[in-house]
Amino acid sequence: MSSSFAPLRSHFLIGPAGSGKSTFATRLVQANPALVVVSTDDIRQDLYGDATIQGLWAEVEQAVIVRVQAAIQSGRPVIYDATNIKRPWRMQLIEKFSSLGATSWLAWYLKTPLETCLYQNTQRDRQVPPQVIRRHFKELETFAPNPAEGFINVVTLGKTVQNQFVILPELPEIQQEIARLSTTIQRANRYAQQTRHGYSRLKDFERLLFLLALVLHHPGAGNLHETHPEQLHHLLGHTEFFLTAEEEIAALLSKLHHPLYADTAALTQDLQWLRENALLTTDVQDLQQPYKKLQQPPFTGEADVRTAHSYGDWEAFERLLTTLRYILYHPLGLEEGGALVALVQGLTKDGLHVHPDSVRRDIGEVLKPYDLLRGRMFKQGYYAGTAIFSREELQNIHAVLYSQAQSLKNPLDQAIYEQYTQKMQQAQIGEAPYPVRAIANRIIVPTSSEDLPSDSLYRNLEQLERYITTGTLLHLSLKQNVGTWPKDRKGLFSAWPLQIVFHNIAWYLGYEHKEDGLFRYGRLDRLFLAQPLPQPRGIDLQRRSLKRIDTLLKGSAFLFLGDDPRQQQLFLNTKTRSTVQVVVELWFTKALSQFIQEGTKRFTQQKLDFNTGNTRFPCRLVATLPIWSIEDIDLQRWILGYGDQVNVIQPQSLAEKIQHIIKSMRAL
Description:
The protein is an alpha/beta fold. The chain folds into four domains: 2-191, P-loop containing nucleotide triphosphate hydrolases (Rossmann fold, 3-Layer(aba) Sandwich), CATH 3.40.50.300; 202-367, no CATH class; 457-555, no CATH class; 572-666, Alpha-Beta Plaits, CATH 3.30.70. It has helices at residues 21-31, 40-48, 57-73, 87-99, 114-122, 130-142, 171-179, 181-187, 202-217, 224-227, 229-236, 245-256, 264-276, 314-329, 339-349, 356-367, 391-408, 411-426, 461-470, 539-555, 565-572, 590-598, 633-640, 652-666; strands at residues 10-14, 36-39, 78-81, 105-110, 153-157, 159-161, 164-166, 474-478, 492-503, 506-513, 519-523, 527-532, 581-588, 606-609, 619-626, 646-650. The chain has a five-stranded parallel beta sheet with strand order 2-3-1-4-5, sandwiched between helices. A five-stranded antiparallel beta sheet has the order 11-10-9-8-12. Helix 5 (114-122) packs antiparallel against helix 6 and helix 14 (314-329) crosses helix 16.
């Protein structure tokens, strides 16, 4: 039997807990007693007295190295028995084993169904939590063992025989697999025909992809310790300062993936190549210039077919990275026929002729697993990381932010605009936008820190937004010595903040009174925060109340929602709404009829006709409004603005109010 194993030096077992690795190892030893089993479970038992205690991996790994080295020095092959679920774990161990002289490893991947692993786990004395097994299964499903990790070959165990799934092969089948090894080695010669490049080794290839994913999902990586130290602390779990961008990136890759990819010298070359090929810079006129081919990075060092992967050939690698670059510069850009068709058409137009099946494979096997394409393929297109807008779209957004920040004077909007402008300039996408659009309405109330006390809601917008999204109940008060209406509530009151709204001349807060459920809008510069109360009610109740205040706002003439919570509740109920509604009828002169006719969406429920029968006021506007709108000063101001060109027909109460205001003005 032992002669059957002569071509092999060692065996590397891979599989989730409960997949049958130890049983398979026993079967191999029965076939060849010369094999030495090095098991991490046995090592933990020896080190800590309990195989379930994970301990320190550095201690466990050192014991693994010692036992493998002892076996190799005695001329005996090894069976390394561990889950080995993560690819960088496997690659790093193979590198260390090779340095000991153990250069030939055959990987056995026990691709046992999840349900079987979970069941077999329950039959063991040492059980692993089910969620751990599920995590193992998911990791191996995403990054399955690959010969390019440094193996002679990977043999996947598990097949269906007579409608039953069989995990472990019998000894004759094991011998056949080993006998086919020479054929596998001969097949590997095809990699010798590859056009190699700087990322033909799997480790280098993965480092480049993880680097791209890092920069896509964490823009500014390399200088986060200066610009966003809190974000860096969240990612690393501690605070650290770095002298170079490469050091910070290496630390992030080490933390997020594995120290195997944290080679600062290699990362320096990676960053340079990505910049030169327009994958980490926007300073390229790719939309105007002819298609720019990727520069082929040189292959250095000795070739080893064991580390050659499917993208080790330049043609495949060029197609993959060019596809990613196109998606980065044309996110969600589509033509008819679907996302894949549009992508292939775009690549062809830029000079790269590809087959749809090849692009589909690139997306499924690389771009998605390495988190370079977030989510699934959308009918609307593909996008890479956070790159969801094209250059032109980013410039349009810049212009919109400019008009809002300059006109409405919202401190948060202004901060976002300044940050956005800085990043646009750093990325060399465009200069400060020409103000093609502007918002004529402008804020006329105090907004600066010199004009408002520190407890003004206007000066605590970021905190207020957090209270809104969590449903935090607030103790609020009205500012003293300001204009108020007769029914405005004085002193402290409790309310849930719902939404910040800009209306006419100022920013308002829509809120719900805790005492009686009254919905109301109050100007931010007039409201002050006394204190937040504990136990927020949550986003679901917030959404429900927001929907209610929005219904009241859309049904009303302007921002005023009345002072009676009972009337609001009747309006919110479609069955009783009519009991708190009033018909407002206004007649306008012929001169104003065109202007009135253009405002078809001024009120939610309105009708317009020219059948008044009155030659002076031929145009009639009929709107159904809540009864509180009759008291709305904005509605009264709107009517009065038309002077003698409008006549209030009904209701009588509104006509009398307008007449009273006119008489009072004449008496001045």
